[in-house]
Amino acid sequence: MKTQMLTQMLLLAPFLLVSLASGAHAQADRNDGNQELVIAHRVVEWQTKHFDDQTKAKQHSETLTRLGAEVRMDQHEGHIDVTYRSPSWRPLRVESDTLAHQWQEWLRASGFETIHGHSPDHDEHAHHEGHDHEQGDAASDGDIVLYRAPAWGAQHFDQPGKADEFVILTQALRCQIETTGHAGHTDIRFVCPQWTAVEFPNHKVAEAWIKWLESAGFEVKHEDYHDH
Questions:
Q1: N or C, which terminus of the chain has less Cβ within 10 Å?
Q2: According to the UniProt record, where is the region Disordered (predicted)?
Q3: How many CA atoms lie within 13 Å of 77's alpha carbon, on the beta-carbon side?
Q4: CA gyration radius, the chain
Q5: CB of 90 closer than 8 Å to CB of 40
Q6: Segment 130-144, tens digit of pLDDT
Q7: List of long-range contacts for 209-217, beta carbons under 8 Å, 24+ apart
Q8: Model-level pTM greater than 0.85?
Q9: Distance from C-alpha of 69 to C-alpha of 82, rounded to nearest angstrom
Q10: Cα separation of 188 and 153, whole Å?
């Protein structure tokens, strides 16, 4: 029911999404109190979902297409296979924390990796409508990592695609960002002064992202809640 509701929301109200596939630099310098929340998402390997209902298969395919994924549909023996991938990080922009968590659950259920920063006081919204923590909280199977970058940091990129992905990820981590271009290069400055939380589906994924955060210049706190 939740998946169908979210699919219909996207099909009927595409204005919920802003700059899904491109324009990361154009959005990077926005830093006001009404800025949309960003969910960075990707699915590197091809995924396939099987449907018996043609309408549901079409809705799923159209949703994935709007998210910028490569999609193909195949029908066999009365079933429909929707196969898709989206190997580069893309931004999904929403206007509320509730929508952010609903979409994060939908994306993860569809096989996507997701990055979405939120307040460390997560219990305040952990059980609001549409966010039941099926994945990614310390009480179930996920790990929570706290991070901040209290002083301005900088990254230099020679490849525009890598710069775009870094912008998307730091936006999803709720950082303030400034970008400048010169002689074919891109410099990205970022700051994230408050401790912020990000959830990962398991310890292995969390450890990999801790290395990424530290290499980018973030301070990190990680409490291991589980035996691994």
A1: N
A2: 114-138
A3: 1
A4: 18
A5: yes
A6: 444 433 333 345 799
A7: 209/115, 209/145, 210/145, 213/145, 213/147, 216/149, 216/153, 216/155, 216/166, 217/149, 217/153, 217/155
A8: no
A9: 11
A10: 8
Q: How far is CA 128 from the centre of its chain?
A: 20
- CA-to-CA separations, 54 to 6, 50, 62, 78, 226, in angstroms, rounded: 17, 10, 12, 9, 41
Burial of 100-116, coded b for 16+ CB within 10 Å and e otherwise, reads bbbbbbbbbebbbbbbb
**Which residue type is seen at 27?**
Q
- Return the domain boundaries, the chain: 1-11+33-115, 126-228
**DSSP assignment string, 89-103:** EEEEEESSHHHHHHH
The CATH number that domain 126-228 falls under is 3.30.70
Of all helices (H) and strands (E), which one includes residue 39? strand 37-51
Structure tokens at 45: 């390997």
- For residue 163, what is the enclosing H or E element? helix 160-172
Both structure tokens of 104: 């994060």
For the chain, how are helix, strand and coil distributed in percent, rounded to 5? Answer: 35, 35, 30
Tokens 């801790």 -> residue: 210
Q: What are phi and psi of 180, to 5 degrees?
A: -140, 145
Any bridge partners for residue 198, and if so which? 117, 145
- Tell me the C-alpha distance between 39 and 41, whole Å: 6
DSSP 30: -
